[in-house]
Design a protein that fits this description.
Layout (H helix, E strand, L loop, with lengths): L1 H28 L11 E8 L5 E7 L2 E7 L5 E4 L8
Antiparallel strand pairs: 1-2, 2-3, 3-4
């Protein structure tokens, strides 16, 4: 009886330690999603301007645009003439 209880306690402790290790790894590296390669929209780059605002370079069906997000309103900043990648 005590051997079965000890085995369950050890398995529970191993599961808790594995979850703690996984949580620490995710907190350290973040959840990085692979860039979307197909579809209408593709995020080319993001630049953090301050704690809230971000500048995004977005490609949509061959057109590349800059978008500012995080302020009072989101806005389209520029539509570069060249479609060359950065």
């Amino acid at each position: 009886m005590e051997g079965g209880l000890l085995l369950r306690v050890a398995a529970s402790l191993a599961a808790v330690l594995a979850l703690a290790w996984l949580a620490a790894r995710v907190a350290r590296n973040g959840l990085r999603l692979p860039p979307q390669q197909q579809g209408a929209l593709r995020l080319r780059a993001t630049l953090a301007l301050d704690a809230r605002r971000r500048l995004h370079l977005v490609e949509s069906e061959g057109a590349t645009v800059l978008v500012l997000t995080g302020g009072a309103t989101d806005c389209l900043l520029a539509s570069p003439k060249s479609n060359a990648p950065p």
